[in-house]
From TrEMBL:
Cofactor(s) recorded in Swiss-Prot or TrEMBL: Mg(2+)
Active site residues of this protein: 437 (phosphohistidine intermediate)
Protein name: Polyphosphate kinase
Molecular function per GO: ATP binding; metal ion binding; polyphosphate kinase activity
Encoding gene, per UniProt annotation: ppk
Keyword field: ATP-binding, Kinase, Magnesium, Metal-binding, Nucleotide-binding, Phosphoprotein, Transferase
GO cellular component: polyphosphate kinase complex
């Protein structure tokens, strides 16, 4: 019987798969084997993830529903059906978040000397005096209380802002209750430490301090009730680039709209006065299913601030310092080292500094004629931006593609673009209708035997801050054919010239998807011929139906397919005759898994590729992405070792089950293997060996901060 690989029953809905991913992050917060403050951090990450999910994905579904769009997704669900399923799934997720916080983490924090004041009424007389004085001196001058009456309309409630709503009545009167609100200022620390005797640490959240002192904001009024609330708005930018004469100005204009997009989620303190809730609900036009009654502090991203409190290092995992690459010792001439052979960097286990030094040395080198680079997300005080500016000031030809549409980094990127232009760089803003997500740098250098091109290609952004938190790989090369392709990439981005052929690189949106489909089909044909056929693919998300269909066909032909997919996975495993040969694992650990690595056995002549693209329609069809082969045998072995180590991980890996759930492996009687810890130890060992030092003992590490 012929199998219809288009049948929706073979696919998982993308949005529901994402919810399962946030559950996997939440499971880290619930894992008793993890140090207490790390568990706090993971809980904070689930909240941050959920905020972005609402602002973009739920907002997009709401837009479709409002427009009467009824087309079904690959799992056969309409936007309305997806929203209904999501409301149920996310309410359950939020309940589990707060159950974890209240029943598991809070008691442990108390036991370990950190007391969080839940209600200001719990304060002693001495503590109350301190808190009230703190309010008067530090908080009161910053606040803007707003009342609503016939002359004062309901105020703009900003996206993601924390507010306190109140019902008030004029003193000594029988007048009707009035609504009033005050925004909890984000410019002040939300975590306030109360002086206490002994070793114990006592903190109170800023909203509790304000709520306690509401009567000072509305003089001549009685405060009948006061409760915190928070809203999430549609933050998806919709820009008609063909109509936008100046993309820079149009994006600046759209950014302001994020503050007053449609309200799509309302979080309120559980037990909020019904009269107060009714007003907020009516004014924000919020449906009941989008209201979340919270038993605990609103916006759990505050836990990241608590994580940063001093004096609790014993409840955290030791911070890991990225190691120097043995191939690029400190102070070396990077160009000389690259000429010896391609160099692979594995971040954050190995330092990102060589990538920064690559640009810095190019900026200062009198033989360097030009530097060209794509920038998607960069850090707040980026050394790469500074080096590019210096290169332009030194008379180099500097071309920088700054992607203005990098979500939630638009404002940052506008600032960088203007700064680079002032320094004399040629700044371009990408192609109309496409995001440029590729990670590539080209340095053109004049040498004795002519012009040589040096190229850096990577799976992650040119961001020195996230390079300490995200797992990525990068390659430095001066291979002539890759250099030719790199030139063609920048000519395509800055002009309109599409090369007739590519030597080594494959680019989205025109060629990359076909390349992947060809590689998968090649393995399928090898399997049908009885030859060695095996695919290992590591990425962040998998939801492209054409790729999934090709994987199903390859699996049905007998190809062994091992997928390492951190987040969304719309493919199902264990379907008889369809996906029996496919396994999927998700690794959620101290570092954010971000690298994209693809292995194809190719009948014992295996090929390995790395790139910037996930197997998603947006990456393969609506973005400029680059896939590059790794040809040097030692580097191929290193990448295969990375993949095999992750396939061996039985500590941080969750395995996708045929019913769509994810389960941690049964570790009873097995030797524990945490791939991220193993990579940390290997990097330290290599650095020590390069420096002539002795071996190290086993440990567990963690980065300074972590964001999903």
């Amino acid at each position: 019987m012929e199998i219809d690989f288009k049948d929706p029953k073979y696919y998982t809905n993308r949005e529901l798969s994402w919810v399962l991913f946030d559950y996997r992050v939440l499971n880290e917060a619930r894992d008793k084997s993890i140090p207490l403050f790390e568990r706090l951090k993971f809980l904070s990450i689930t909240a941050s993830n959920l905020d972005e999910f609402f602002m973009i994905r739920v907002a997009s579904l709401k837009d479709m529903e409002n427009a009467g769009y009824t087309k079904k997704d690959i799992a056969g669900m309409t936007p309305t059906e997806q929203l209904k399923a999501l409301h149920v799934a996310i309410h359950e997720l939020v309940d589990l978040q707060y159950s974890t916080y209240n029943r598991s983490l809070l008691p442990l924090l108390e036991k370990n000397g950190l007391h969080i004041v839940r209600e200001h009424e719990q304060l002693t007389a001495e503590e109350a005096t301190y808190v009230d004085q703190y309010f008067q001196e530090n908080v009161y001058p910053v606040l803007t209380p707003m009342a609503v009456d016939s002359s004062r309309p309901f105020p703009l409630i900003r996206n993601k802002s924390l507010n306190i709503g109140a019902m008030v009545r004029k003193k000594n009167s029988d007048e009707e209750l009035e609504f009033a609100t005050v925004q909890v200022p984000s410019v002040l620390s939300r975590v306030v430490r109360i002086p206490s005797k002994g070793k114990a640490c006592k903190i109170i959240l800023l909203e509790e301090i304000i709520e306690r002192n509401m009567d000072k904001l509305f003089l001549n009024y009685d405060i009948v009730c006061a409760h915190p609330f928070r809203i999430m708005r549609n933050a998806d930018l919709s820009i008609d680039e063909d109509e936008a004469a100046d993309l820079l100005k149009e994006i600046e204009k759209q950014l302001k709209k994020r503050q007053w997009g449609e309200a799509i989620r309302l979080e309120v303190e559980s037990g909020m006065d019904k009269r107060l809730l009714k007003i907020i609900k009516k004014e924000l036009n919020i449906e009941p299913e989008n209201i979340y009654e919270i038993d605990g502090p609103l916006d759990l991203t505050v836990l990241m601030k608590i994580y940063g409190l001093e004096g609790f290092d014993h409840l955290k995992t030791p911070k890991y310092e990225p190691q120097q690459s043995p191939e690029l010792p400190a102070g070396c001439n990077i160009f000389e080292e690259i000429r010896k052979g391609d160099i692979l960097l594995h971040h954050p286990f190995q330092s990102f500094t060589p990538v920064v030094d690559f640009i810095r040395q190019a900026a200062r080198d009198p033989e360097v004629l030009a530097i060209k680079q794509t920038l998607y997300r960069v850090s707040g005080n980026s050394p790469i931006i500074a080096a590019l500016a210096q290169a332009a000031e030194n008379g180099k030809q500097v071309t920088v593609l700054v992607e203005l549409k990098a979500r939630f980094d638009e404002e940052n990127n506008i600032v960088w673009a203007r700064m680079l232009e002032k320094a004399g760089c040629h700044v371009i803003y990408g192609l109309v209708g496409l995001k440029t997500h590729s990670k590539i740098t080209l340095v053109v250098r004049r040498e004795e035997d002519g012009i040589r091109r040096y190229v850096h290609l990577g799976t992650g952004n040119y961001n020195d801050a996230t390079a300490k938190l995200y797992t990525d790989v990068g390659m430095l090369t001066c291979a002539e054919r890759i250099g030719e392709d790199a030139t063609a990439v920048f000519n395509m981005l800055s002009g309109y010239s599409e090369p007739l052929f590519w030597n080594k690189l494959a680019l989205a949106p025109l060629w990359l998807k076909d390349k992947f489909l060809h590689l998968i089909e090649r393995e399928k044909n090898y399997a049908l011929e009885g030859k060695n056929a095996h695919i290992i693919a590591k990425m962040n998300s998998l939801c492209d139906k054409d790729i999934i269909r090709a994987l199903y066909e390859a699996s049905a032909a007998g190809v062994k397919i091992e997928l390492i997919v951190r987040g969304i996975c719309c493919l199902k495993v264990g379907i008889p005759g369809v996906s029996e040969n496919i396994s999927v694992r998700s690794i959620v650990g101290n570092f954010l898994e971000h690298s994209r690595i693809f292995y194809f056995a190719n009948d014992d002549h295996y090929e390995i590729y790395c790139g910037s693209a996930d197997w998603m329609p947006r990456n393969l069809e609506r973005r400029v992405e680059i896939l590059f082969p790794v040809d040097r045998p030692e580097l191929k072995e290193e990448l295969l070792h990375i993949l095999n180590s992750q396939l061996k991980d039985n500590v941080k890996a969750s395995i996708l089950q045929p019913d769509g759930s994810y389960e941690k492996q049964d570790k009873r009687g097995k030797q524990l293997f945490n791939s991220q810890d193993a990579f940390c130890l290997e990097a330290i060992q290599k650095a020590k060996e390069a420096a002539g030092e002795s071996a190290i003992e086993s440990r567990t590490f963690i980065p300074e901060t972590h964001h999903e």
